[in-house]
């Protein structure tokens, strides 16, 4: 009977799409509530709700962009290394 390989899972927040979606939803919700409380305190309804929500959304999307950019740079390095890995073996043999 074949044996199953263990599944390795990393505990990295916001490294998958579902985690990122939940993170954005919670962030927007928290800032919405903060805006609501500030609006009730200052009597400026709905101005601060809109400002805080937009601030949260812009921050979340900026964070997504930077995480994506770093991931793509890592992937490019891996791809470059795998594309030239056959050349390293030839250099070692040539040096001997």
Give unreliable regions as ranges: none
Q: What integer is the average pLDDT?
A: 85
- Level of helix content? over 70%
How many helices? The count is: 3
State the separation between the terminal residues, measured CA to CA. 45 Å
What structural category arises from helix and sheet content?
mainly alpha
Question: In this structure, how is the largest beta sheet organized?
Answer: none
H/E element order: HHH
Strand content: under 5%
Shape: elongated
Q: Over the alpha carbons, how many angstroms does the gyration radius reach?
A: 24 Å
- Total count of strands: 0
What does this structure look like?
- With 96 residues, the chain is mostly helical.
- It has a domain at 18-84.
- It is built from 3 helices and no strands.
- The protein has helices spanning 17-42, 47-83, 85-95.
- Helix 1 packs antiparallel against helix 2.
- The chain is elongated and about 80 Å long.
- It starts with 16 loop residues before the first helix and ends with a helix.
What is the secondary structure topology, with strand pairs?
Layout: H1 17-42, H2 47-83, H3 85-95
Provide a concise account of the structure shown.
The protein is 77% helix and 0% strand.
Main attributes of the structure:
mainly alpha, single chain, elongated, about 100 residues, 3 helices
